[in-house]
């Protein structure tokens, strides 16, 4: 059995490759021709360097749908399954799903809702699912009228992923809000959302082609980077009835197929999780789910090759997992001279947790992933001396 993965430069692709490769499935990885060695250092395409990757291919850039879709449709015929990893490739493949017979994705109209934070918030309101207070001003003039009534700090967020970095901006005053909105609206009218005091949680699920739940998992973030809010650097598996209820309700309302994630912020003031967004792909903390007993890539592959199995709805709780960029949290605190020793003590105690990035059976890819962090570690003594 074999499988083709897209977006080989991304760490999530490597996590999927490791999962499937260890199950004796031949893994092949693809990447956009933009990352070809003539333009890019191919050694940095991490999945290509994995010992579990049997081969690789370059394909047209996904934004060129006239070339990308026909190329991928023909290429996919050689494999038992095609798993697009990121929205860049998921969107054009999903939009032309009739040309593929070895994918497992939601309908394009359902995917469009999931990718739009505005529509997700509206869907949650209809379903009675809590969301942060959210505003959708149509232009700067409307925002100026609204800005005087808002509580600060407040967030300005892209409606769609991948339009710009950072994913959101924290505004501490009316002036900052108007300034950031004006910059972002040149690309797309962003949304305005309250900033919740709490911790991030995620609900992850797998549905078959008949929209039947086949597996789920939940985690909570212990540390994030950026510290103000971002991807997990240290997280643990957990279970929460409300997260389960709201996550399932939202994905089922979207007639979901394949893997999906509902991201929450747990409002500690009101003791309820609130939906932030839906991600139609594998997530950055995927190794934690695998360590906890829910091997999503393998379960997805089984569904794609028409092998049925009993729903996986039990997993280990309080399994902890750390990522290479967890080191950035410590470095950030050293640079700013705050909570240095407490942060260092916490970080040292975290080294006993499972590592998502280092795999002794896959040393080359592991070292490439960790190289930037190792270089940062070499500079730490100088940072401490300055403090």
Describe, in plain words, how this protein is organized in 3D.
This protein has 387 residues and is of the alpha/beta class. It has 4 domains: 102 residues, Rossmann fold; 62 residues, Dna Ligase, domain 1 (2-Layer Sandwich), CATH 3.30.1490.20; 125 residues, D-amino Acid Aminotransferase, Chain A, domain 1, CATH 3.30.470; 61 residues, no CATH class. 37% of the residues lie in helices and 22% in strands. It has a 7-stranded mixed sheet, sandwiched between helices. Strands 3-2-1-4 form a 4-stranded parallel sheet, with helices on both faces. α11 runs antiparallel to α12.
Concise summary:
By secondary structure, the chain is an alpha/beta fold.
CATH secondary-structure class of the largest domain: Alpha Beta
Helix content: 25-40%
Mean pLDDT: 89
The CATH homologous superfamily name of the largest domain equals ATP-grasp fold, B domain
* Class by alpha and beta content: alpha/beta
Radius of gyration: 21 Å
Low-confidence stretches: 381-387
What are the key terms here?
four-stranded parallel beta sheet, Dna Ligase, domain 1, D-amino Acid Aminotransferase, Chain A, domain 1, 4 domains, disordered C terminus, alpha/beta, single chain, Rossmann fold, 14 helices, about 375 residues, globular
SSE map:
Blueprint (H helix, E strand, L loop, with lengths): L1 E4 L5 H11 L4 E7 L20 E7 L5 H12 L4 E3 L3 H9 L12 H7 L2 H11 L6 E2 L4 H8 L6 E4 L10 E4 L2 H11 L6 E4 L3 E10 L5 E12 L7 E6 L3 H13 L4 E10 L4 E8 L6 H7 L3 H9 L15 E3 L3 H11 L3 H11 L3 E2 L7 H16 L1 H7 L1
Parallel strand pairs: 1-2, 1-4, 2-3, 14-15
Antiparallel strand pairs: 5-8, 6-7, 6-8, 9-10, 9-12, 10-11, 11-14, 12-13
Helix pairs in contact: 6-7, 11-12
